[in-house]
Amino acid sequence: MTERTDARSLAGQGMVLRSTLTSPFGRKARIAAKVLKLEASLELLVANTLDEKDSLRQQNPLGKMPTLLLADGTILYDSTVIIEFFDSLGEAPRLLPPAGLARYAAMTRATLANGITDAALLMVYEGRFREAEKISQRWLDHQRGKVFRGLDTITAALPDPAQTDLVSISLACALSYLDWRRPVEWRAGYPALVDWLDRFAASEPAYLATARPEGA
Ligand SMILES: N[C@@H](CCC(=O)N[C@@H](CS)C(=O)NCC(=O)O)C(=O)O
Asked: Does residue 154 sit within a domain?
């Protein structure tokens, strides 16, 4: 038995994803599972990051989603680790270059896209966790800077919208989160990115299939 067949048989015993249908990081994992045809083995168990009684905090002390539970008790996070694990189950990686500098360069680009989502989330949390009079404009501007510098850098070398990989999944989930929560207005200033997202959505059915449910 190779390590891969062991991992495959473990995954085949069923995996539980702690997330919601609206989490942008959870969506990354859900898209990857669909693309890699792992959905039949994956159950979504809705998590509530604000509920201290939710077992999420025992499963992942950071209390963040997505978190992946495997049948032997192994717990994996964060979204990039989960996607790398999913990708390791196939004959050859499909969502990242197999090795070498190209792999780490792609991971860095995906980290940039994730950083946009992180900064956007922090802007949203600023409004959610603080009373209106305590909201820090300086903090919001600090995070906004990360979002726009990230968008500028990504726009300068856009990924192929016809290719689904860790970078395009991470970028699409970042942009759709910006569209949903609107911590910044990005569409008017980045027409090439708007076009990229439209093309990615047309090329990758798993993207639209994992869209946030109406009214959520
Ligand atoms: N680096 C993590 C970020 C995950 C993350 O921030 N998830 C958000 C929801 S989209 C969360 O769980 N927030 C709750 C919290 O920070 O307490 C990943 O890639 O999975």
From this structure: yes
